[in-house]
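ingest -> validate -> predict -> emit
validate: passed (alphabet ok, no gaps, 504 aa)
predict: started
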Amino acid sequence: MKGVVAAGDRLTAEAGAEILKAGGNAFDAAVAACFSAPITEPALTSAGGGGFLLAVSGSERPLLYDFFVDVPPKRIESPEFYPIEVDFGDTKQTFHIGAGSVAVPGFVAGLLRVHTERGKLPLREVLSVAVEYAKRGVKLSKLQASFIKLLEPIFTATPESRELYAPDGKLIDSEREFKNPDYADFLELLSEEGQWAFYEGEIADEIDRIMRERGGILRKEDLERYKVVERKPIKVNFKDYEVFTNPPPSSGGILIGFTLKLLSRVEFDEWGSVLHAGALIESMRTTQKFRKDFVNGHLHEEGFEGILNRDEIIDSYHNLFKNKLNLWGNTTHICVLDSEGNGVSVTTTNGEGSGVLIPKTGVMLNNMLGEEDLNPLGFFKWPPYVRLPSMMSPTAVFRDGKPLLLLGSAGSNRIRSAIVQTILNYLCFKMGVADSVSAPRLHYENGEVFVEPGFPESTIDEIRRHYRTTLFKEKSLFFGGVQSVDFKFSGGGDPRRGGFVVRV
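emit:
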């Protein structure tokens, strides 16, 4: 066996698998899948966004490539920046778009750095599947088409976005092939000129021009100063396992680590029990308090991750968690593993997209400055040139110094709860990877608990006794999109987001 790929769509996974078949390693395959996803999952990611990649090579300590977005200076008083509401069916969420919502993209720089440092095949070959998809066209899955429909106000916000995503006035769907020849040309340019074209050359000039014309704050000088950062993942001991995940200035990893610290002292009985649900909800509630008390505003401080090793702080929050528990009765993720022991867990996102496309590239720019989840202190409050904190948290689980499981999730604020529940399912409830990913989830936020169908009625009744509760009628993309592989070459693709696994 050459390897296994778990991704948010069949065609994305197949792109990675094709590169494994051609002799590429896990890093080549992950880069191929990531550059294919803007065609196969256009509502969830873009080369105009950013992300994080956790690299595992055998029993070596994992390395985190941070290529998330930077905050540009607010150069104008009134940037183009306006709200749109997205209806998830059982709940709604507001996002802000427009040229003023665009942060400095890191997608291209990050993935090309990973390919240069760890890949085997030439870049042109690695990008060949994505080029073919873009030229030939692909039929979106019904689920991916529904995501486009969900975000229709964004994908029809500008003349150039309407031309690409709603040709002839009709939004792209699963019935017609979606082609993006400009994106194919863009990828071929990257094959020839590398990241220089995007950050210093003609594409950078086009980004600068359209930002000035549309009321954006991003400029070419911001692109020129962008840097990929290689970081040491935080390590959290959870029962007999070691969990490695995204360090600050990302907030997702440190919050996942904190939640696992709380849950490590719980002796679970069975999945879906009152104890299980209560422990999840109260750990999420306590983590939300920890975030407000200690995390927001401190993520860029040197050595901040050391807070997870301060026993007096952890113990005080654990007592709060335990006392409460005693009262009980647009983003995509890819995981790849190869036969050489290399593993990749990579999350990329474009937010929901700004509606603004880079001319002649087929690339929509991100709206990260317009996501409330990433701007807890308020919009345009971050100092310039810092990494925007993120919930994205590619994660690896080790036991006795050997890799066991790779996973990560899409889903905004639900990323951390989706990852924690998948880890518990696999490690504590001994589910297989696929079942760990697809099992029903719940999520706590601001005094309300959101619950997928599948939990026992007695457990739901107990949840209602403590918290305002929203029951979803079916599994929903609201609860994230986990993709995962273990080192037995099993994989789990999240059905909530059309997840798919390909073994080669």
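The chain has 18 helices and 20 strands.
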